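Justification of computing resources. Each target in the renewal requires a structure prediction run like the one illustrated here; the chain below, 134 residues long, is used simply to show the kind of job we budget for.
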Amino acid sequence: MGKSQDNEKLSGISYEYKVYENVIDALDTARNKRKSYMKNGPFVIIGSAVIFLLLMFVTELKVEFLVLWIATILLSIGLMIRTEYTYYRICQVLMIPAEDEEAEVLNKIKKDINNLRSHMDNKDSDIISDNNET
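Resulting structure tokens:
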């Protein structure tokens, strides 16, 4: 079965629930990447500086190692900026105002998801019982 057929089988509420759940998962992934890059990014930049400077002074390939060093720095900074922007955009979509309030908001969101899940389970059981009565 294709994805479009699977989406057609989902009702409006369950489709919205799936989308919302996927966004929450994306937020968790972005947050974990952001923390990792913020913690390890400066070490990668400083480590690459030390390694490439040592290689520049030890070998005769000074220009090549200088270019590799600059490329490593730009790539590392680019990854950190992209991750920060992804996290920022997801927070904007979910209307999470600040990082301090994020834990409270995420707990509220997870509680809302659980309420929605129980509501959907009740609705499904009502539909099944209605079908069995007829």
